[in-house]
Amino acid sequence: MLLRSSIVAGTFIRLPVRPQCGLQLRHQSVSTHKPLTLQPLADRSFIRVHGTDSASFLQGLMTNDMRHFEHGGAIYSMFLKANGRVFCDALIYKRPKGEQHDYLLECDSSVAGRLEKHLRLYRLKKKVDVIADDTFRLWVAFRDGVTHEEAPSTEETASDKNLPVAADQLHPFKDPRLTRLGYRVLSSNANENEAMEQLHKMFPGSSMAPTNGTDPLPYTAFRYALGVGEGGENLPDGKCFPLECNCDYLHGVSFHKGCYIGQELTARTYHTGVIRKRLMPLEFKEPPPVKDVPSEALQDAEIKNKDGAVVGKLRGLAGSMGLGLLRIEKVLPDGQLSVNVAGVSDPIACRTRKPFWWPKETNTRH
To answer: 182: alpha, beta or left, given left = phi > 0 and alpha = psi -120 to 50?
Structure first.
């Protein structure tokens, strides 16, 4: 069998060459030069970790390598339980205008309290302070609708050194996970209208995302279309492993650093080259009729293939897009699936596909 080198998270591995499937979801023909869409993310919180031991402290608790801050201002990472399952994910920034060893952890608001307690538990005698930080509000700037495989624009591939110029109250970072996710912007301006005005100056031609009290957030649907999970809903505490959540493909795990909590199982899984399940996008012809369905019924709803076999679980819904934790070999290349939700009489038809940003060769053997 022919072998070819594949690169995942900076590490060379030898994987078997497999025929490429021809499945494609309908893609929107949208130029990458489409103006940016701006949106505040009210469901994200910040935890500040600072002190002379802060870098080494975080290094022993998370999947990524703090040494990446030598080359950039933000990294993506996950915090794991001792059994290797995901506790939560986080984006980590050098705190704007902060001290030398001063970092901000951005996480889902629903897990912020637990993460702060988790960090304090391991602080021991290290010279580190861990506190909730409400100084900043998070905004995202993204090109809505760009989900197909297409060469990124020059602006999208610009290095951190070519980021939009930071304003007094706005601090932009390129999303370290995926180019298509655009920018995360930390705003210290409590006045939303003033912040919007400053953002429009930072990103000329940008527009605000159309939102109201009932529609799902556009950014969430956009993220689901890319197959990217984030926060407690998509990555429930203790119910998934980091590589199943594409942490390796999203530059969130280092296989060269020293030990950290949950490292043994993560490294062993990676080096076997076998990850049977991963988060993948789901596309529905129209938004599923689940408005009156309790959230508990949607959590872990079974997903079946056309043969009726259970191939995964639902991890999120936003409009006509969703996210599922799926057994890759059981859903591709056909992609035809159905979601079975308690309280909904008929299965809800949907499709999935292999995200364009995955490596061309993905080892998923049984």
So the answer is: left
Confidence of residue 233 (pLDDT cuts 50, 70, 90): very high
* Per-position b or e across 202-215, b if 16+ CB within 10 A of its CB: bbeebeebeeeeee
> Can you give the pTM of this predicted structure?
0.86
Give the burial class of 128: count Cβ atoms within 10 A of its Cβ; 0-12 exposed, 13-18 middle, 19 or more buried: buried
The secondary structure of residue 145, as a DSSP letter, is T
SS3 151: coil
More confident residue, 318 or 145: 318
Q: Report whether 308 contacts 341 (CB < 8 A).
A: no
What Rg do the C-alpha atoms of the chain give, in angstroms? 20
Q: What is the pLDDT of residues 277-313, one digit of tens each?
A: 999 999 999 999 998 888 888 988 999 999 999 999 9
Whose CA is closest to 283, among 366, 351, 354, 356? 351
Residue with tokens 């090109």: 143
More confident residue, 216 or 203: 203
- Cβ atoms of 196 and 37 within 8 Å: the answer is no
